[in-house]
Write a structure and sequence with these properties.
Blueprint lengths: L6 H16 L8 H12 L5 H28 L7 H22 L8 H16 L9 H24 L7 H8 L13
Helix pairs in contact: 1-6, 2-5, 2-6, 3-4, 3-5, 3-6, 5-6
Length: 189
């Protein structure tokens, strides 16, 4: 069997293409593709099941992170304006929302808790990193990161499709031809 291209080359070309996806007017976070791309391989490689698990878990995690930001924006000063009061409020919000995220992992569709945390972290990096077509808008950050995380399993599939060995015509023919008996007769075993 021969490889189409070395995996290192294919993965690097695909990685380079993310610059065109993120480096546009929408200012999308291209690195978010890498998070779910790596997550696909952490789950054992490209498969529809792994992609589906990530496509369910990562947006759920991003949604929990979105809730934290929204509550912080609307009620962050509920205990006062000082740093201690704001930090206490933020800690309480994280405690409640993180607990909800962990309990959501008991739902079969969201059972990939590490995937939810990948989405959780991806949202925070997108929002606080100033990505999205309307910087500072948590809803735009949420849409942007979900779209980019969704591409990771696609890139994982492409990287494997373009690098896995291609069977030669001789190999395909040999696999489908009837076995020839040996000159010594049938195998006694």
């Amino acid at each position: 069997m021969r490889e189409r291209l070395p995996h290192e080359i294919v993965a690097s070309v695909l990685a380079g293409l993310t610059a065109f996806i993120g480096g546009n007017a929408l200012h999308l976070p291209p690195w978010a593709i890498f998070i779910s791309w790596a997550g696909t391989f952490l789950l054992g490689g490209r498969s529809w099941d792994n992609a589906r698990r990530l496509w369910l878990a990562m947006p759920a995690g991003s949604t929990f992170a979105l809730l934290i930001v929204l509550v912080e924006q609307h009620a962050g000063a509920a205990l006062g304006d000082g740093p201690l009061a704001r930090n206490t409020m933020q800690a309480l919000v994280i405690l409640v929302v993180n607990s909800a995220l962990m309990y959501a992992g008991r739902i079969k569709a969201l059972a990939l808790i590490p995937g939810m945390f990948l989405g959780f972290a991806s949202f925070f990096a997108t929002f606080f990193g100033g990505f999205g077509y309307d910087v500072g808008n948590p809803w735009v950050a949420w849409i942007s990161v979900i779209a980019m995380n969704a591409l990771g399993p696609v890139f994982a599939c492409l990287s494997n499709r373009l690098t896995f060995p291609v069977r030669t015509t001789e190999q395909v023919t040999a696999e489908h031809s009837p076995a020839k008996p040996s000159a010594a007769g049938p195998d006694p075993a």
